[in-house]
Design a protein that fits this description.
The protein is α+β, with helices and mostly antiparallel strands and 97 residues long. The longest helix has 13 residues.
């Protein structure tokens, strides 16, 4: 007899793997709320972080800084340039206080 195998088992359908990058991207977009108008931003993510820290007052209570809004600026270099130059791909974050 030779090396002969038979498999009588049935192959079960394997569940599709979700796109894990898409999950992270959606979470980051929800954190930034960059495409949401200022008046419609919810108190979560970056907006919530700023709201939880501000207002900042001095010890005497005479002066304080209050958070109004934030904006994510345009990137200076595209991803390809950053890779070629060994730089970090980033965009400026500007807040109005």
């Amino acid at each position: 007899m030779g090396d002969f195998r038979r498999n009588f088992g049935r192959v079960k359908k394997i569940q599709d793997i979700p796109n894990l990058i898409e999950i992270q991207t959606r979470s980051y977009e929800k954190f930034l709320q960059a495409d949401v108008p200022l008046a419609k931003r919810r108190n979560i993510g970056l907006q919530g972080a700023f709201k939880s820290v501000f207002p900042i007052s001095d010890f005497s209570g005479k002066c304080s800084l209050e958070f109004v809004s934030y904006k994510i600026g345009d990137v200076r270099y595209d991803m390809r340039e950053c890779i070629q130059k060994g730089m970090t791909y980033a965009a400026p974050l500007k807040i109005v206080v």
